[in-house]
């Protein structure tokens, strides 16, 4: 085949010519997952089965996401080189997600909500893992999804899909490249997860527990008991205003909404604007969500450019700290006590928290010097987490671009 569209946009040196396309049905056969099982059959036994989540989440299935089941010689055992496909999902974009089995195992089966595919010819497994999740192949699979409230794909239809099949040596080159990229992404993900776990541990140990007057872990030079304060004692509360009729996709003033505060207290752009406003945010204040998810979560404003003002809608509030409290410390103290705000929220369709309940939030507080130490410590930790998150996001975007350009 000499069709130009069968030549990838990016290619390794030493390879030329158009790629061949072959139907899955011409080079392999399907097999079923577990059949004839009831709830009582799962959760025990010396055999294992590959879960739906394992297939859905992982281009290469992992041994970490297997569940127990009894050995059953009537079932199809999976083999190294098998490929699994999910059969249904709530959206067509998530139907037919693929996962390659690269392990030499015995007595491992496949869950009943997926089906297996066993190639009759040699493929590089890392190549298959990336190729089957590339935009070009995902588009073909999504096109075949059928349904209304839930979407499905049949084994017969899947076997009609044509996949690009370069030479085995080129497959190995491509597969090795994506394997190295995936390993790098996994390494950064582990580092990020470790940092988040460390932060969680520090939040538990650097603040007093269960009415205690001092924390378990403390900076040197501080020995005084922490004191209790209400939020109204250390901040001034300002509510936002209804802006729904004035919201634009572009404008003079960026609107701070519920979406502006993440669950871990990071302020982010809402992408919404207004052109008419009178009350603007101040630097170094806290923004708190007042309804729906993440009730009571706060993010801290930092540098607000004089050329760009920010205003609040009515579902968020601004807390302006006085001289007795450090904003960075207070942000962490509030976010680690989300349960207080969740259990005091009320509403039929939408959960909200009142100004009174916000202002009556009671917490422990040390002197300003110790607050500054704690605030600076967590800021440095948050900056490191953000840096690793940016690196991880960049790597994922790079992979997305390579998947787009290295397959046809």
Automatic annotation (TrEMBL):
Domain of life: Bacteria
Record GO terms (molecular function): DNA binding; endonuclease activity
Protein name: Restriction endonuclease subunit S
Coiled-coil segments on the chain, per record: 178-205
UniProt record similarity statement: Belongs to the type-I restriction system S methylase family.
A GO biological process held by the record: DNA restriction-modification system
InterPro entries: Restrct_endonuc_typeI_TRD, Restrct_endonuc_typeI_TRD_sf, Type-I_RS_S_subunit
PANTHER family membership: TYPE I RESTRICTION ENZYME MJAVIII SPECIFICITY SUBUNIT, TYPE-1 RESTRICTION ENZYME ECOKI SPECIFICITY PROTEIN
Keywords tagged on the record: Coiled coil, DNA-binding, Endonuclease, Hydrolase, Nuclease, Restriction system
The keyword Manganese belongs to this UniProt entry's keyword annotation: no
Domain Type I restriction modification DNA specificity: 19-196, 224-396
Source organism of the structure: Loigolactobacillus coryniformis
Pfam family, one: Methylase_S
Transmembrane segments: none
């Amino acid at each position: 085949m000499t069709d130009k569209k069968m030549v990838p946009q990016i290619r390794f040196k030493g390879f030329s010519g158009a790629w061949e396309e072959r139907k899955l049905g011409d080079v392999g056969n399907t097999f079923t997952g577990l059949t004839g099982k009831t709830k009582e059959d799962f959760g025990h036994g010396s055999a294992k089965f590959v879960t739906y989540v394992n297939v859905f989440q992982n281009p290469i299935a992992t041994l970490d996401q297997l569940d127990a089941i009894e050995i059953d010689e009537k079932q199809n055992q999976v083999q190294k080189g098998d490929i699994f496909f999910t059969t249904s999902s709530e959206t067509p974009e998530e139907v037919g997600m693929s996962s390659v089995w690269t392990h030499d195992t015995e007595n491992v089966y496949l869950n009943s909500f997926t089906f297996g595919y066993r190639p009759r010819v040699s493929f590089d497994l890392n190549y298959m893992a990336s190729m089957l999740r590339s935009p070009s192949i995902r588009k073909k699979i999504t096109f075949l999804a059928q349904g209304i409230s839930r979407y499905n794909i049949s084994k017969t239809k899947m076997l009609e899909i044509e996949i690009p099949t370069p030479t085995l040596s080129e497959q190995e080159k491509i597969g090795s490249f994506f394997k190295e990229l995936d390993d790098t992404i996994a390494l950064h993900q582990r580092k990020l997860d470790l940092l988040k776990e460390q932060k969680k541990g520090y939040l538990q140990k650097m603040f007093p527990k269960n009415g205690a007057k001092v924390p378990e872990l403390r900076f040197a030079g501080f020995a005084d008991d922490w004191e209790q304060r209400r939020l109204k004692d250390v901040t001034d509360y300002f509510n936002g205003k209804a802006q729904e009729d004035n919201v634009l996709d572009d404008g003079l003033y960026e609107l701070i909404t519920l979406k502006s505060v993440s669950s871990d207290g990071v302020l982010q752009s809402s992408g919404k604007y207004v052109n008419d406003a009178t009350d603007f945010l101040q630097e170094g204040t806290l923004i708190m969500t007042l309804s729906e998810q993440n009730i009571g979560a706060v993010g801290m404003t930092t540098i607000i450019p004089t050329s760009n003002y920010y205003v609040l809608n009515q579902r968020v509030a601004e807390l302006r700290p006085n001289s007795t409290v450090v904003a960075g410390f207070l942000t962490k103290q509030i976010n680690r006590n989300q349960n207080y705000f969740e259990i005091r929220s009320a509403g039929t369709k939408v959960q909200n928290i009142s100004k009174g309940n916000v202002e009556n939030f009671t917490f422990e507080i040390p002197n300003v010097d110790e607050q500054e130490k704690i605030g600076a410590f967590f800021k440095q930790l948050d900056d490191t987490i953000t840096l690793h998150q940016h690196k991880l996001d960049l790597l994922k975007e790079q992979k997305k671009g390579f998947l787009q350009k290295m397959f046809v």
